Please model this.
Amino acid sequence: MFDNANKLEKITSLAKRRGFVFSGSDIYGGFVGSYDYGPYGVELANNIKKTWWKRIVNEEVNIVGLDSAIVTHPKVWEASGHVDGFSDPLVECKECNTRSRADHLLEEIGVEADEKMSVVDLNALFSKNKGDIKCPKCGQSNFGQVSNFNLLVKTNLGNFSDDWAGEPAYLRGETCQGIYINFKNVLDTTRVKVPFGIAQIGKAFRNEIAPRQYIFRKREFEQMEMQMFVTPESEMDTYEDWKKKRWQFYLDLGFKEENIRWQNHKNLVFYARAATDIEYNFPFGFKELEGVHARGDYDLTAHQEATGVSLEYLDPTTNEKYIPHVVEASVGVDRTFLAVLTEFYDEDELGGETRTVMRFPRELAPIKVAVFPLLRNKPELVEKAKEVFTIVSKHMRAEFDDNGNVGKRYRRQDEIGTPHCVTIDFDTLGENPEHLDTVTVRDRDTGEQERVKIEGLVEYLQG
Ligand code: GAP
Model:
């Protein structure tokens, strides 16, 4: 156990130092709300996506995958209600012109603003508390009126002239709209029958007023979304089922149960019949990690009305026609990434030394095994270590390292969360004939070492 103070700073510094997360456009001085994933970050993010996909698409009997376009016909976002209603409350400081989210400023002084509060009500609440609210940049309390700020990111994709003032296109604000507009395609081309699901992982974009808390709130982020299409009667049971499944997902990932909790939405958005969040205990407190929503037939009806294309489902046994209802599970890759860093960051003492160790479960670890020659200046050891690397790297993400001494290499691999380190020494080459063609395997968590035959190494590492 370690002192939990400054955990966010510790995590961000490790993530930068070890090549997990860099500030976006770093050499240009950064770009607000933008981050890049480095060599170990991309591996971790890919493993998070693989784990989600495996659980949702591979292991469920009736869920299929999709990869829809980021930029769609602009009318998609009119029909979905995003052009008119997808906004956050913005307030501007009159002293320094910093724009903030009114509900977040209220939250910071302990006043909760309802998600669905009208701008008029929010203005009244803001004015009532004005004296206590400080601008996060200049510290003054001199604000303008609260107004709605639309979060859709516009683009003029296409060969328009510079002064083109026509209809803009939008970068998708959530990936699930791509699923709804492909509902009929999937139904017509695959063998799915209601109840069935469509899953998608991909980038989403929002003009967040104040991106903050590291990778928690970004303008460009990635979502993993699953939409189950069900009968109207089974919507609420499906919703309860998926709440259980998603809760279990985090426990199976190795999250401590005390670090997750439910937060039901107090007021539902217009389309939702029920909605709840799984919150995670981030270094800045419990915040939304994932949303599970019962969306009724809102989305399919909206797209059917906008296009005139029937999105009804014909039940092959009852001959009944209806618009399926939707249960959604939606989570951000970036937020899961931050939750994973938070959950598995640890400091302990090993061999009388304090170390930092990321205790990632093997399936999430960016590198599964590191292979070292005991000494870098002994060509026979280096050559044998490269041979071992070639064997294991065909089965798992491996890293060859002959920099510095073995102790330093262990520290580095502990910090990037590598479960096993394999060292090739003189015994491997037969100095002790009993150990010919064996290597030492060191366990990240216990520091203990075992001699393992190269022949059975892959199976050993795969556990
Ligand atoms: N389709 C439903 C939907 O998009 P949401 O609650 O707005 O619902 C779902 O977003 C998830 O996407 C959130 O729980 C969060 O994990 C992630 N997310 C939303 N906005 C984000 C942002 N600005 N930065 C990073 N992740 C975000």
Remarks:
- The pocket of glycyl-adenosine-5'-phosphate is lined by residues 174, 176, 206, 208, 217-218, 221, 223, 225, 288-291, 328, 330-332, 334-335 (CB under 6 Å).
- Residues 367-462 form a domain with the Rossmann fold fold (CATH 3.40.50.800).
- The CA atoms of residues 374 and 406 lie 7 Å apart.
- The chain has three domains: 39-84+153-343, 87-150, 367-462.
